[in-house]
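Residues determine shape. Take a concrete instance:
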Amino acid sequence: MPIASLKNTSLHYELEGPEGAPVVVLSNSLGTELSLWEPQVTALTRHFRVLRYDTRGHGSSRSQGSSYSLDDLGGDVLALLNLLEIERFHVCGVSLGGITALWLAIHAPQRVLSLMPCNTAARIGSESSWQARIEQVTERGLASIADATMERWFTESFRRSDPARVETARRMLLHTDAQGYIACCAALRDADLRDAIASIAAPALVISGTHDPVTPPSDGHYLQGAIPSARYCELNAAHISNVEQSGAFLQTMLEFLGAL
């Protein structure tokens, strides 16, 4: 299991696909691990060098400190890329991973070839909602939010039709270190890129879920309108669209990346 020792943390990562191919970085959502991308990774590695990683405090990456900032999370990605000697890359992220992708396009514009911010926003939720989440998990643990989280992540019809994949997602959430989850909630509580995203010059594809209660299509339309080169796609899904609409998500990615 590859572990990168960075300045302020250590990250579990997987780097797959043909050497010399363009690199695609995949960034996972809050409460998940790099295995979130299993529905897409096999097809992507036919065309690309794919880098997945566990966000700090998630999966097998180290949890450190009581709160993180978006600068910490984006800086982790750049430090990992530097360690692996990867200069330029495409980046796709869901939710927390999506706002991390926006941060990378703002802070490392010369390195980002394109970005796909999915089921995300320049400002996700509100300070009060994240603070309430932090307090609940601190007092009662991740199990106390598991049912409500699955309801946000997946539509009712998907939860009925594919309970195995929903259970896999639940296990990822419950496997997450509670302190790492709380620290990432703090990063989301404080993150606001609304004034910065107009500077993004890289080609962008914004993906939203029609039934996403966390970052609804209005958030995706806001990103499309504010990012000069952005296109928009909406899938029949809730918050974790790369799982709920895995095939459509993959085809949309490959078309945008010019692999179809």
Notes: The chain has a mean pLDDT of 96. Residues 3-256 form a domain with the Rossmann fold fold (CATH 3.40.50.1820). The CA atoms of residues 163 and 169 lie 10 Å apart.
